[in-house]
């Protein structure tokens, strides 16, 4: 089986080298291109690629510009709809006048029926335009939403693990979902109200001026008051919105914590304490939500009431016009048309104030996500380098003022498996992450003649394969978790991880869905599946952090034998607290108290009492070596 695996690995590697081994798939959608890329450890990233020239993700105008086609339909249909709305007050006035004329005997019911028929046809045309406008406004919003989230996600996955953990999952979820949605909603309402409010307001104002410009100016004195009030309320609305977003992020984080650690809290009897913390987050969220909703929802009715004060002038001076003693001579139709037109204008003007609040809310969200709205780096194909020596010279790492380890020097050749061990919290995992260059180190760590810290993130992706403590499995099939989109056979890698038989026994084999984070698998199965994924995407340097911790002894023996065959042309750093196979490793790094000791198994047994004690407590010492 090992020999067969080795041959298949060579064949797969040769085939994959021809198509970038990094497994990139370009998928073109209607508005955007996406790039799927495999990173060390088999993680799948979804990266939006810029396909418009001069597109600036950090500029709101750019999103309007790239969606010019839906906006063109919105403009045309919006003009027809809002101009057509002006016909409603006119028809209402004509119908009222026609009814009065019928009662006086100067008109017939046929005239009324004809007027009603024309009114219905005009209304149908106006509503059809409204449907088209709303359809393309929603399409515009959906396209912007997808584009923004694609850019935000692409930049999120390019951040270091430390920065993501510092910000918190709840805050990131709020930004990626709620803040983007609020931004898009503000853009949608702005686009809608440009026509539903802006054009309509202008048309209604012109209509009022035509009927009686003096009365129009007098009745419109109160309308600007709603705009001024909305401008005054900008800062309170933004403060309330920012507090609400912060509370929403904290609640999301608390919810995730309760869901992920529910069993642990129940076992250790700390559910009540965690429930209190959750209730605190929930209470803060409710208070900020209420305050935010007050600013968002309670003010528009006040704006509307203030604007409608002009009706008093229309009733007084409009009645004089009908009686022939005012500024103009009106009939019932003119009075009804003017009053209806003003009422519709007031309703529209209240929406302007509401639009201000929506835009202010969107501004809060935009400020939160703007640092992440930048053009993602355009990635070339991964160029996986040939295997070379890994040389460490006086390598040290410190976290702030705390020294984690120091003085590590060794040279590892392709084919070497270097064991790394030591007591708990001695810096083993930190040493493994040094090769990812997530934080600066002291001394030298070279791949061939190149310093790891001098490599670009792209070059590190092509050079280092990393498997950490967390398997990081996706809610997908076994095959997709192993291959992550690459075109090869998953079975050799599952066999190398001693998982082939168990996968074949599953209900759907390779197509079995394993659940979120591999919830349908045991701890050992999840660990071996992650190992198979790492093996399926070979790199010249592999960092395996405790890959055997959840395996029984027989399975560990099988996996290690396969790993030895697999690593013939690679440098492997195997971090583990299980020392059964350390006698078979070329070199061993023992870490303790910030100090490092390098040597063979026999050398460490002779020179490091703690290592000897750990080894013999697990294996029985010489007896185990003779049996092996």
Would you kindly provide a written description of the structure presented here, covering whatever features stand out?
This protein is of the alpha/beta class and about 625 residues long. It is built from 24 helices and 13 strands. The strands form 3 sheets. It has a 6-stranded mixed beta sheet, with helices on both faces. Strands 5-4-7-8 form a 4-stranded antiparallel beta sheet, with helices on one face. The longest helix has about 50 residues. The protein is elongated, with a radius of gyration of 35 Å. The protein starts with a helix and ends with a helix. The N terminus is likely disordered.
Highlighted features:
628 residues; alpha/beta; 4-stranded antiparallel sheet; 13 strands; 12% strand; disordered N terminus
Compact overview of the structure:
The protein is α/β, with parallel strands linked by helices and 628 residues long. The chain is built from 24 helices and 13 strands. Strand 1 and strand 2 (33-39) form a beta hairpin.
Instruction: Give the proportion of residues in helices.
Output: 55-70%
Indicate the structural class: alpha/beta
Q: Largest sheet, described in full?
A: 6 strands, mixed
Per DSSP E runs of 2 or more residues, the count of β-strands stands at 13
Spatial arrangement of strands, main beta sheet:
9-10-11-6-12-13
Mean of pLDDT: 80
Gyration radius (Cα, Å) is: 35 Å
Uncertain spans, ≥5 residues at pLDDT below 50? 1-51
Strand content: 5-15%
Number of helices: 24
Overall 3D form: elongated
């Amino acid at each position: 089986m090992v020999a067969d695996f080795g041959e298949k690995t060579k064949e797969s590697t040769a085939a994959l080298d021809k198509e970038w081994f990094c497994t990139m798939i370009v998928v073109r959608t209607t508005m955007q291109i996406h790039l799927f890329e495999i990173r060390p450890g088999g993680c799948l990233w979804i990266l939006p690629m810029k396909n418009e020239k001069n597109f600036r993700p950090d500029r709101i105008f750019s999103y309007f510009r790239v969606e010019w086609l839906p906006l063109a339909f919105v403009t045309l249909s919006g003009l027809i709809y809002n101009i057509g709305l002006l016909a409603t007050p006119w028809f209402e006035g004509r119908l009222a006048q026609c009814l009065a004329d019928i009662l006086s005997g100067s008109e017939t019911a046929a005239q009324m029926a004809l007027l009603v028929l024309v009114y219905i046809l005009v209304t149908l045309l106006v509503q059809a335009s409204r449907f088209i406008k709303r359809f393309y406004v929603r399409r515009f919003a959906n396209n912007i939403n997808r584009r923004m989230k694609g850019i935000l996600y692409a930049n999120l996955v390019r951040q270091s693990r430390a920065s993501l953990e510092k910000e918190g999952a709840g805050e990131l979820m709020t930004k990626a979902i709620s803040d983007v949605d609020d931004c898009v909603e503000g853009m949608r309402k702005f686009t809608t109200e440009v026509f539903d409010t802006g054009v309509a307001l202008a048309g209604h104002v012109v209509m009022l001026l035509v009927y009686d410009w003096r009365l129009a100016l007098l009745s419109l004195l109160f309308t600007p008051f709603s705009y001024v009030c909305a401008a005054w309320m900008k800062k309170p609305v933004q403060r309330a919105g920012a507090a609400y977003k912060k509370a929403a992020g904290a609640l999301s984080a608390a919810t995730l914590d309760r869901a992920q650690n529910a069993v642990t809290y129940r076992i250790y009897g700390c559910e009540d304490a965690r429930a209190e913390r959750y209730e605190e987050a929930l209470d803060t969220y409710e208070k900020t939500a209420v305050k935010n909703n007050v600013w968002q929802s309670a003010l528009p009715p006040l704006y509307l009431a203030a604007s409608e004060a002009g009706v008093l002038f229309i009733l007084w001076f409009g009645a004089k016009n009908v009686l022939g003693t005012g500024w103009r001579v009106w009939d019932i139709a003119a009075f009804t048309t003017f009053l209806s037109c003003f009422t519709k204008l007031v309703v529209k003007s209240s929406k302007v104030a509401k639009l201000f609040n929506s835009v202010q809310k969107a501004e809060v969200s935009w400020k939160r996500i703007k640092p992440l709205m930048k053009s993602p780096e355009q990635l070339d194909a991964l160029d996986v380098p040939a295997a070379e020596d890994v040389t460490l010279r006086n390598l040290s790492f410190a976290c702030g003022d705390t020294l984690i380890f120091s003085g590590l020097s060794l040279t590892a050749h392709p084919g070497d498996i270097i064991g790394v061990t030591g007591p708990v919290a001695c810096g083993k995992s930190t040493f493994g992450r040094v090769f990812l260059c997530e934080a600066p180190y002291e001394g030298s760590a070279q791949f061939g003649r190149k310093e790891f810290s001098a490599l670009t993130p792209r070059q590190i992706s092509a050079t280092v394969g990393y498997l950490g403590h967390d398997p990081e499995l996706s809610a997908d099939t076994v095959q997709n978790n192993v291959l992550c989109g690459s075109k090869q056979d998953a079975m050799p890698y599952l066999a190398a991880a001693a998982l082939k038989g168990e996968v074949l026994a599953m209900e759907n084999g390779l197509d079995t869905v394993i659940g979120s984070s591999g919830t349908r698998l045991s701890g050992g199965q999840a660990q071996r599946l992650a190992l198979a994924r790492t093996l399926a995407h070979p790199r010249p340097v592999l960092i395996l952090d405790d890959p055997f911790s959840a395996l029984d002894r027989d399975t560990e023996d099988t996996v290690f034998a396969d790993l030895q065959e697999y690593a013939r042309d690679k440098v492997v750093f195997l971090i583990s607290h299980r020392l059964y196979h350390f006698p078979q490793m070329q070199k061993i790094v023992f870490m303790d108290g910030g100090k490092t000791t390098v040597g063979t198994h026999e050398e460490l047994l002779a020179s490091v009492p703690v290592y000897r004690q750990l080894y013999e407590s697990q294996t029985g010492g010489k007896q185990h070596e003779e049996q092996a």
